[in-house]
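To: structure subgroup
Subject: Chain for Friday's discussion

All,

I'm putting the inputs and outputs inline so they're searchable in the archive.
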Amino acid sequence: KLRDIEPPEGIGSFTVIGGEHEVNLSWENSGDVDYVYTTIVKRTDRFPGSPTDGSVLYIGTGTGYVDATVTDSTSYYYAGFSWDGTNYSTATLGSTSVMDKTPPAGVGSFTAIGKMGKVELSWSNPGDIDFGKVEIFRSTIDFPATRTGYFMVYRGTGTTDTDTQVTNGITYYYTAFTYDRVGNIGTASHATATPGIDTPPSAPGTVTEGYFDIDVTIGTWTIFWGAATDEESGINGYELQQRINDGEWKTIRDVAGNVIGVPSFWGSVGNVYYHRVRAMNGNGMWGSYTVSDGIRVVNSAEFVQAGSLKWITMDRSGININVSGGTETGVIAVSHKAVGNLPFSLLGKAYQVAVINETNEEIQPQGSITLTLFYPDPDDGNEEADTGYRIYWLDQNGWKIVPGKQSIEPASNQITVTLSHLSVYAVGIPVEGIMVYPNPFNPGRYADHTMVIFKGWNGYAKIRIYKLNGELIEEMDGQDMREWVPSADIASGVYIYVIDVQGGQKSSGKLAIIR
């Protein structure tokens, strides 16, 4: 048996080209008849001396390979070997270096703010994984386009710097260059500023009216805020403004000096008062406002902890609240509420009941709340009529009867319900409904159509009749009811009637007249 001791021909035309983050290798395989495959090996310190002397990248019969397992700025040494099944050829060698040619991104949000005797610079660094540093240069003529011939303000990896080697009144042009770790330069970013220009003071610190922002006494309260700052000219004073509910902001006090509290005078119960403060510096420049979360003026309030059992009582002619265990921590607040457009006859007052958290936001209870409302009896002695009274609540769509059992005690003039949702509540007498008849009004056909009758309410009402285009044609008063004889000059057509009952009840509809 003969043994093959002749090694195959080595690979030919072996080229090794270093790219960006990769090395491209190509070759020609041996032309020997007993050629089997090619092996490619690499090292980083020297050329491989054998097919096992290094990292084996490739074994096969192809003629090219892309080595992506490389690091930028590193030299690599490759060797290729042919194999005939018994022997390896001698090594064919090639080497290259991998170079990073991609520049990093430029800095972001590059700003320059001129102040007295200085320029404050700020920026954000790029997120490139190979980010190396930032260099900032300046000029008094134009933005530096290169890194040579200009004053270097900053070099490093931070995001802020203060240039104090400036002269007030001169405009400075700044250019920021970014670099990666191999020296590639990113896109230049520019900013300009003129020192010596006064800047507004900072906004004041937190504005507050008190813990939980609940006030049960109409009168004076002290507003507090954190002091503002101004490096150039100091703080000359503050402006305090107030807004009631969703109304307009109005100035209520100018405060001289760096004072942190002044009295504010409340208005009526049931309103939420908001405050905002801004500072003026020594050169007369105003800063930004800081706004409070508001203070709510109520008739009565009680701090409630989770799991507690508390009563809040205004008076025997008003409202009682029993807070059961599990109610969310906060303040139970009660205030009178002005209401209108009621679908019932109001007895007494309407009350807004709310749980208020630390930031003066209304939250809903986690446990049940027992609400008792007291009402003035319009016909004291007729206790049977009291059984028809109900507690109503107000939501975004209007007034509704509180669902569930309503316990009525005519002898003490009170109604009790259990709630799981807080709103505005009132005791009322359900209205059967306002009637308008005959409708249509047709005196030419029916002999008994001599007048139109409006009825179905208790007390005084104002009645208005409009054309469809909004023109008022009749206005009249009525106590419990009203009779109306349309004049002969009122033509056939469809009209709109609006009935406003004293106490808030309102009704409207269409009335047809046929001549």
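Points worth raising on Friday:
The chain has a mean pLDDT of 85.
Helices lie at 383-386.

D.
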